[in-house]
Specification:
Strand 19 and strand 20 form a beta hairpin. It contains 15 helices and 20 strands. It folds into 3 domains: 65 residues, Arc Repressor Mutant, subunit A (Orthogonal Bundle); 217 residues, Rossmann fold (3-Layer(aba) Sandwich), CATH 3.40.50; 132 residues, no CATH class. By secondary structure, the protein is α/β, with parallel strands linked by helices. The strands form 4 sheets. A 9-stranded mixed sheet has the order 3-2-1-4-7-9-8-10-11, sandwiched between helices. Strands 15-16-14-17-20-19-18 form a 7-stranded mixed sheet.
Length: 427
């Protein structure tokens, strides 16, 4: 990759051919002498098309470059990066240990006095160095090398350490910390000595309970989604856990849904209590907090619906993706006392009240179609959702003969052990 800010013909080529077929362009210019690398130029066009929404602000500068498709694919959605920066806040001295394309580093740097961006891969390092200059982020120092060794050798103390361990190995995608590079678990003790706060970006497939066991001194855990798709688990560690041995501070848990512009669509916050074992803060019965037990619904605060609660004119609520990941059903029921769970395994809720800030889909119940009345649904555009129901949505759609819908929904679930259909429309 040989590119600098004076290669006008390179960027002119990208702009002029922004909508052209890439295969035809490759064939058209094959063997011709060009003042730039054709494959690298075609890569820029492809990335600009594929990630136009994901990196809208980044691409508003027409002179930025992508080192590879993989670097763009692995980069944070800008909405996520903006959220990271808002959580981290004004940080005098920060370090991003795994910068990659730099989307997170750029967002954090805008609120930081200075930021060190570490990148091991030479091509990504070169693009990172170039892009931070083009974007005018002169408070970023880019380091090409092993960030673990760098931070170990550094005499600096950082306000913030941000790390997004690589989630690929020779066998493909991975998500457990021990399989990522670097494995952050054995690094935490040293990182705590080097920084006030540590933020670890992890896979949305990460096991929440296991994570809390692996990192018992974490202070916050967040499931973050963009437009309803869960993108990551963000783990935060700082010294607050050790402030009081007699009264350890609970873990803050959050389910956050963002739109493509970085605005928060919904945010549900609750706390997971701890007990103290002298050395570390250990979560107390996390499963009691996150799940419900129909045998002991008084203890966990969850109420269950009867048939009278699922009447036309009442409301049905479907938690969004980050809520499903954290599964804070006890905390949700405490926050919204009017809701009742359809069944222990459905994770659907009903209420006589409209709850505008419910973290998920909100619908009004129209009817409970029986076997006979379901025939009238044939040919209509209806979304099919199955929860705790033995038939998959695609199969049920064919059985009912309905089309893909927009505002109308049919939920197939169970009330206790009885199958139930709920026809409703989104609000």
């Amino acid at each position: 990759m040989k590119i600098n800010s004076y290669d006008k013909t390179f960027f002119e080529f990208i702009e002029v051919n922004a909508k052209e077929d890439l295969s035809r362009l490759k064939l058209k210019y094959h063997g011709k002498s060009l003042p730039f690398d054709l494959d690298f130029a075609l890569l820029q066009i492809e990335c600009r098309r594929k990630y136009a929404i994901k990196m809208k602000n980044f691409l508003s500068n027409s002179n930025v470059v992508f080192p590879s498709i993989l670097a763009a694919e692995q980069a944070s959605h800008e909405s996520i990066a903006t959220f990271h920066a808002s959580i981290i806040g004004n940080s005098e001295r920060s370090i991003d240990m795994t910068s990659g394309l730099g989307i997170d580093a750029f967002a954090i740097a805008r609120n930081s006095g200075s930021l060190i961006a570490c990148e091991l891969d030479p091509e990504r390092f070169q693009a990172l160095t170039y892009n931070k200059e083009i974007l005018g982020l002169f408070n970023i120092t880019v380091v090409n090398g092993d960030s673990v060794r760098f931070i170990s050798d550094s005499r600096n103390h950082f306000n913030t350490v941000f790390i997004d361990p690589a989630r690929r190995n020779k066998n493909g995608r991975v998500y457990n910390f021990k399989d990522c590079q670097p494995d952050v678990i054995p690094l935490i003790k040293e990182l705590r000595n080097k920084a006030d706060r540590i933020f670890i970006k992890a896979s949305p497939l990460l096991d929440i309970s296991q994570t809390i066991r692996d990192i018992p001194d974490l202070t916050a855990i967040r499931a973050v989604s963009v437009m309803g798709e869960c993108k990551e688990i963000l783990v935060e560690i700082n010294n607050l856990c050790y402030n009081s041995e007699d009264n350890p501070i609970p873990i803050v848990a959050e389910a956050v849904d963002l739109n493509n512009n970085g605005e928060i669509s919904s945010r549900f916050t609750y706390k997971i209590p701890r007990i103290n074992d002298r050395l570390t803060c250990v979560p107390q019965s996390y499963n009691d907090i996150s799940t419900d037990n129909p045998i002991n619904s008084i203890y966990n605060g969850i109420l269950y619906a009867g048939k009278e609660d699922i009447s036309p004119g009442n409301y049905i609520y479907e938690p969004n993706a980050p809520m499903m990941k954290l599964a804070p059903w006890n905390a949700l029921s405490t926050s919204y006392p009017s809701i009742k769970k359809l069944s222990p395994s459905s994770h659907l809720f009903v209420s006589t009240e409209f709850i505008p800030d419910f973290p998920g889909r909100k619908l009004l119940i129209d009817s409970l179609p029986d076997k006979k009345s379901r025939k009238s649904l044939h040919g209509k555009p209806i979304n099919i959702v199955t929860r705790n129901y033995p038939v998959a949505p695609d199969i049920l759609r064919k059985q009912l003969g309905v089309k893909e819908g927009d505002l109308d929904f049919l939920y197939a679930s169970r009330l206790d052990k009885t199958p139930i259909f709920i026809l409703c429309h989104k609000l």
